[in-house]
Write a sequence for this structure.
């Protein structure tokens, strides 16, 4: 039994050594490039900013993002999000979190998207009777989207397949968007 284990380990070591040697030989044949430059050539930055101010109402959103273009058809990326909504003497909310996004461009003018978003919601309510209460929770959204693409700008809509009208994060499952990456 011990002899079988010894033979197995010896063969495994020889195989691993030969495999590593073949990777080293292949790596030496590849042209020397500057990987950092190649990486940053494929990165695009963008995001969103929103501002809505009215009589006793304020809504401010900041959502920077970055994508990495795998090729001319597919890109993946991350986004951060922060929002503040307030209605004077009634309601205030902080929303912050992030998302992972995948973009697919089957043809130049069309962009399809898949976005998984996780945000922390902190709601504060002021009651007419004088009291108040808080509603704090995590919310997960999964958006499927599509839009018309021209250059670095995409105009379209996305649908939250995990939409729940009772969680007070988004008022509708279907939302329009303008996406810009430079």
């Amino acid at each position: 039994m011990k002899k079988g284990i010894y033979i197995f380990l010896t063969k495994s070591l020889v195989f691993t050594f030969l495999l590593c040697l073949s990777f080293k030989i292949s790596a030496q044949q590849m042209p020397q490039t500057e990987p950092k430059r190649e990486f940053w050539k494929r990165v695009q930055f963008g995001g969103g900013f929103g501002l809505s101010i009215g009589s006793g109402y304020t809504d401010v959103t900041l959502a920077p993002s970055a994508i990495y273009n795998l090729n001319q058809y597919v890109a993946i990326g991350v986004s951060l999000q922060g929002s503040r909504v307030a209605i004077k003497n009634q309601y205030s909310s902080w929303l912050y979190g992030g998302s992972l996004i995948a973009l697919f461009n089957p043809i130049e003018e069309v962009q399809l998207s898949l976005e998984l978003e996780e945000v922390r919601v902190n709601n504060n309510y002021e009651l007419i009777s004088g009291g108040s209460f808080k509603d704090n929770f995590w919310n997960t959204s999964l958006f499927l989207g599509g839009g018309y693409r021209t250059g670095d700008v995409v105009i379209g809509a996305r649908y939250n397949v995990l939409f729940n009208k009772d969680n007070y994060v988004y008022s509708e499952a279907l939302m329009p968007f303008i996406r810009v990456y430079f």
The chain has two domains: 1-31, 42-180. The two ends are 63 Å apart (CA to CA). Strands lie at 43-54, 57-69, 74-87, 91-107, 110-126, 132-150, 153-160, 174-180. The domain at 42-180 is CATH 2.40.160.20 (Porin).
